[in-house]
TrEMBL record:
Organism superkingdom: Bacteria
Residue ranges occupied by any ABC transporter domain in the UniProt entry: 11-248
Entry keyword annotation includes DNA repair: no
SMART domains: AAA
Keywords in alphabetical order: ATP-binding, Nucleotide-binding, Transport
InterPro entries: AAA+_ATPase (IPR003593), ABC_transporter-like_ATP-bd (IPR003439), ABC_transpr_LolD-like (IPR015854), MacB-like_ATP-bd (IPR017911), P-loop_NTPase (IPR027417)
SUPFAM superfamilies recorded: P-loop containing nucleoside triphosphate hydrolases
Pfam families attached to this UniProt entry: ABC_tran
CDD domains tied to this protein: ABC_MJ0796_LolCDE_FtsE
Protein name (database record): ABC transporter ATP-binding protein
C-alpha cells in the first residue's frame, strides 16, 4: 500500500467566519476556523449537531460563501472567485459524495459514473476509469440501474463518479449515513483505498467513531471552532477524545 501524501495542504481555511441571518437572530455557524487539509489524506470532521461541520464543508467546497476569511483549494483562493469561476472549479477540481447517493435512476452505473465528465465534455481516461471501477469493486455492476443495486453498491457508484474526474479533493457528507454497518465498512474501506492507492484527498463529515477510525486524521468542531484533532485514530481513541471534549465543557 502506498501513501501519496507529501504533507502539503490541498485545502486551507484561514480565520473562516460564517454568519447566517442578521441582528439578534444571527447564527455564527463558523467562528474563526483555521484548518489545513493534507494532500493525499482522508480527513474526518466530527462534532455535535449544529457545530458547523456542513457549513465548513460547504465553504471549503465552494458551495457556500464565507462571511469573512480565506479558503484556498488546490492553490486557488476561492473566496473572491466569480460565480462562473466557482462553478467551473466545482466541476473540474472538486468531487462530492452525498448521504443520499444522488444517482440518476434512468442511467446505468457506468453512465452515472461518467456523467460529470460527459456534462463537462471532457474525455474519459479509460485506464483511470478501469482502475477506479476495480478499486470500488464495481466491475460486474456497470450495466445495472441504481434500483438494481444495494445501498452500499449505489454509494460505491457515487464514489466512483466523484473519483473518475481526478478531482483535487473529494468532499463526502455523511457518506455512510444511510448504510448498514457492513455496507458502511465496504464504502469506507474503498474511500480509504482511493486515498492510499489512487492518491486522492478526501474529507468526510461523520457522526460515527467507527467511520472516523478509517481516517488518517480527525478534526473535532464545537460551536463553530476547531477544538481538537487526532492523528491515526481508532474508534476507541475517537470515543475517548469525544468524552474528553465533553468533560472539558464542550457539548
Ligand atoms: N441556511 C442557514 N440559515 C440559518 N442558519 C443556518 C443555516 N445553515 C446552518 N445554520 C445554522 O448554523 C449552525 C451550524 O450548522 P451546520 O449544519 O453547519 O452544523 P452541523 O455540525 O453540520 O450539524 P448536523 O450534524 O446536525 O448536520 C447551526 O446552528 C445551524 O442551525
Amino acid at each position: 500500500m502506498t501513501t501519496q501524501t507529501d504533507g502539503t495542504a490541498i485545502a486551507t481555511a484561514r480565520d473562516l467566519v460564517k454568519v447566517y441571518g442578521q441582528g439578534p437572530m444571527a447564527v455564527r455557524a463558523l467562528d474563526g476556523v483555521d484548518v489545513d487539509l493534507v494532500r493525499g489524506e482522508l480527513t474526518a470532521i466530527m462534532g455535535p449537531s449544529g457545530s458547523g461541520k456542513s457549513t465548513l464543508m460547504h465553504c471549503l467546497a465552494g458551495l457556500d460563501r464565507p462571511t469573512s476569511g480565506a479558503v484556498v483549494v488546490d492553490g486557488q483562493e476561492i473566496s473572491a472567485l466569480s460565480e462562473r469561476r466557482l462553478t467551473q472549479l466545482r466541476r473540474t477540481r472538486v468531487g462530492f459524495v452525498f448521504q443520499a447517493y444522488n444517482l440518476i435512476p434512468t442511467l446505468t452505473a457506468l453512465e452515472n459514473i461518467t456523467l460529470p465528465l460527459d456534462i463537462a465534455r471532457r474525455p474519459v481516461d479509460r485506464a483511470h476509469l478501469e482502475h477506479v471501477v476495480d478499486t470500488l469493486g464495481l466491475r460486474d455492476r456497470l450495466t445495472h440501474k441504481p434500483a438494481e443495486l444495494s445501498g452500499g453498491q449505489q454509494q460505491r457508484v457515487a464514489c466512483a463518479r466523484a473519483l473518475v474526474a481526478r478531482p483535487a479533493i473529494v468532499f463526502a457528507d455523511e457518506p455512510t449515513g444511510n448504510l448498514d454497518s457492513s455496507s458502511s465498512a465496504e464504502v469506507l474501506g474503498f474511500l480509504r483505498r482511493s486515498v492510499d492507492e489512487l492518491g486522492q484527498s478526501v474529507v468526510m463529515v461523520t457522526h460515527d467513531p467507527t467511520s472516523a477510525g478509517y481516517a488518517h486524521r480527525v478534526l473535532f468542531l464545537a460551536d463553530g471552532r476547531v477544538v481538537g484533532e487526532l492523528r491515526d485514530p481508532t474508534a476507541e481513541r475517537v470515543l475517548d477524545a469525544l468524552a474528553g471534549l465533553r468533560t472539558a465543557g464542550r457539548p
